[in-house]
Amino acid sequence: MSETQGRGPDLEALAKGLWGRLRDVLLVAERIGGFSFDPGEAREASAFSEEDADDIATDFVLRALRAAGDRTAWAILAAAADAGSEGVPVEDLTATLGLPRLVVLERVSDLLQLGFVARAIESERVVSNASAVELVAIVRELAGTLAERVRKARRGEGGAGDGLPLL
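Below the sequence we write its predicted structure tokens.
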């Protein structure tokens, strides 16, 4: 993870992982858009245009953040990222989260659909990829910065360095 190298999170690694999944979605959309039920009918409708790129990318990033952004999904993502290439056993996730196996597996499926994790069915493990590791690093870095400001504010250091009062 780039954070351990002192450079902070690697946005390119995160983008590369998200692109892998978005590329798959775009390829499927193109195939479906060009599919014709009538063999004699040529159909060349594209599912997206170059002008759509900003909207598609923004929507995909926000969808990824939303999926990873609730506490349960975050716990799964962080545990998988911390586990490294071995991944984290589904059994450990259910025990840690105190949730039924089906609930955990559905959340894993959400993260899998966005390309953040893989599920090794035979070994029953959830394995993160570089994009998940970088997302975890970004969240932890931002949360750490805010937590330090909270601590300073609690100690009466105003707005924790910004000169503004806490309340």
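DSSP finds six helices and three strands in the chain.
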